[in-house]
Design brief:
Blueprint lengths: L2 E5 L2 E2 L2 E2 L3 H8 L5 E6 L4 H10 L4 E6 L9 H15 L3 E5 L2 H14 L3 E9 L4 E6 L4 E6 L5 E5 L14 E6 L27 E5 L9 H11 L2 E4 L1 H5 L20 E5 L5 H5 L6 E6 L5 H4 L3 E4 L2 H18 L1
Parallel strand pairs: 1-4, 1-6, 4-5, 5-11, 6-10, 7-10, 12-13, 12-14, 14-15, 15-16
Antiparallel strand pairs: 2-3, 7-8, 8-9
Helix pairs in contact: 3-4, 5-9
């Protein structure tokens, strides 16, 4: 029976929503799934993890207690846990945290790693990944004693598969190495990181300036969404690069993507084409984004978005 590990990412004492899809992707008819938890709250997560098919929850800690955030220490601890429990594969998120930890684990284990996977076949050791600005999908085969897969957030539908999980305590004899984390400063932002967001509302050239992004933020607050932007808006200095969606920005796969005043360049579309539902708001009905959306609204975003915000508020208040 293949033993498959899943690096469980958490935020402020909660499992990140996108993790349920990653666990779903790791499941198989004969797979024994191990959820690796590093924030010391394994018992708190038991109900949620076993609901999606995790058989064993590994509470990874140091001999002195929970491991504080340090990608180098975490990577070494996870690598030791993989060897201890005989895990032949490890799944994680292609997120900011995943990009820090997974490559380090791969280096320690001298193992192949493929990030931004769309789907994985553990038995065949193959994974699919978008290529050439989303124009095609490549199938990659990994070889090695261990294989690591970073899944694109939200690309796999989360499907429950209830089981009974057991918690295993594992003390990893690791200490701070060359990398020392002295402080964490989280930038003030509304909503989750774009790569993990389930709903995104983005603005493009038509936003005209940075102050006008207030309209999108107001709508995002009601939707529980994150706010993104096209490269044009970022290059103009209206918003920071951390908000850019596209080939040279962040690749996202939200359940809902609302493009406001975005023409729809190949580069931007490459970064969000795997979104579940795409809504475009544009004064030009012939804009490329309007041709590649599920729902198009031919209108001025400065009129449409405030109406949408008011209607959503009214709907929620009556709900």
């Amino acid at each position: 029976m293949p033993r498959i590990g899943v690096f469980i990412e958490t935020r402020e004492g909660r499992i990140k929503p996108a993790m349920s899809g990653v666990i779903t992707a790791a499941r198989g008819p004969n797979h024994e799934l191990y959820g690796l938890v590093l924030d010391g709250r394994a018992a708190d997560y038991k109900a949620q993890l076993q609901a999606f098919g995790i058989h064993r929850i590994v509470d990874v800690a140091s001999p002195t207690g929970p491991l504080g955030w340090n990608p180098d220490t975490w990577a070494r601890a996870i690598a030791l846990a993989m060897r201890e429990f005989g895990l032949e594969a490890l799944f994680g998120l292609t997120s900011a945290m995943g990009k820090e930890v997974l490559p380090r684990i791969a280096a320690i284990l001298d193992a192949p790693l493929l990030m931004d996977c769309l789907r994985v076949d553990v038995e065949k050791r193959t994974a699919e990944k978008s290529q050439f600005s989303g124009k095609t999908t490549g199938v990659f085969k990994l070889n090695g004693a261990h294989c690591l897969y970073g899944m694109r957030p939200n690309v796999i539908e989360a499907i429950p598969a209830p089981t009974e999980a057991k918690i295993d305590a594992f003390q990893a004899p690791v200490t701070e190495g060359a990398l020392i984390v002295e402080a964490l400063r989280l930038e003030a932002s509304r909503g989750v990181d774009l790569t993990e967001a389930e709903i995104i509302i983005s603005g493009g050239r038509a936003m005209q300036n940075g102050d006008n992004f207030r309209i999108l933020r107001e709508c995002a607050e009601v939707l529980g969404a994150s706010v993104g932007a096209s490269r044009v808006a970022v290059d103009a200095g209206w918003v920071p690069h951390s908000m850019q969606v596209g080939q040279t920005g962040k690749t996202v796969s939200p359940k809902l993507y609302i493009a406001c005043g975005i023409s729809g360049s190949v580069q931007h579309f490459a970064g969000m084409k795997t979104s579940g539902v795409i809504v475009a708001i544009n004064t030009d009905p012939k804009a490329v984004m309007m041709q590649h959306c599920d729902y198009g609204i031919a209108g001025d975003l400065f009129e449409v978005v405030p109406i949408l915000t008011r209607q959503l508020k009214a709907s929620l208040n009556h709900g």
